[in-house]
Amino acid sequence: MRIMGLDYGSKTVGVAICDPLGFTAQGIEIVRRKSEGKLRQTLARLDELIAEYQVESIVLGFPKNMNNTIGDRAEKSLAFKEMLEKRTGLSVVMWDERLTSVEANRTLMEASVRRENRYKYVDEIAAVFILQGYLDSLQHQKEDK
C-alpha cells in the first residue's frame, strides 16, 4: 500500500512516498511552478509519480491557523484536494500540518544545511513530516484495536 504525502504551497509542492509496508515516509522531490495558478504541469508531474510508485491514496497537508481556524491557504488546499480527487480518482486525506515547515527548518539547521540552501529542501521534508504523522496515526489505530 503506497501513500503519497504532499505539502502544497503557493509555488511548490513537496512530495513524499511511504515504503510498500506503510511504515516510513521518504522525500521524493519538490515540484516547482512559476506562479500559484499554474497547476497543469504540477498535476501532470504528480500523475507521473502516482503511476511510478503505484500510489493508492494521498495525504495532503492542511495548513490550519494556530487557533484551529481555516484561512486562505487552507481554502486553497481544499480546492487542490478536490482537483486531485477528480483528476486521479484517489482518495485525498487532509492532515493538519501546523508547524511542519518550522520542524523541517529545524531539522535542516541541525543537519548544518546553510540558510540559503534550506529552501531547496524544506517543502520536501515538510511533506515527509505530514506523511509520517499520518502513517504513525494509522499504526496507533491498529494498536488500539
Notes on the protein architecture:
By secondary structure, the chain is an alpha/beta fold. The chain has one domain: Nucleotidyltransferase, domain 5. The chain is 48% helix and 25% strand. The chain is built from 5 helices and 5 strands, in the order βββαβαβααα. It has helices at 40-53, 72-88, 100-110, 115-118, 122-144, and strands spanning 2-8, 12-18, 25-32, 55-62, 91-96. It has a 5-stranded mixed beta sheet, with helices on both faces. A hairpin with a 3-residue loop joins strand 1 and strand 2. It is globular. The protein starts with a strand and ends with a helix. The mean pLDDT is 87.
Largest sheet: 5 strands, mixed
- CATH architectural arrangement: 2-Layer Sandwich
| Order of SSEs | EEEHEHEHHH
Strand order of the largest sheet: 3-2-1-4-5
Outline: globular
At the fourth level of CATH, the homologous superfamily is: YqgF/RNase H-like domain
CATH fold naming: Nucleotidyltransferase, domain 5
Please identify the structural class as seen in this structure.
Answer: alpha/beta
Taking pLDDT < 50 over at least 5 consecutive residues as the criterion, the unreliable ranges are none
Count of distinct strands: 5
- Radius of gyration, Cα only, in angstroms? 15 Å
**Main CATH class:** Alpha Beta
The N- and C-terminal alpha carbons lie at a distance of 20 Å
Number of helices: 5
Number of domains: 1
Specify the helix fraction band: 40-55%
Mean pLDDT rating = 87
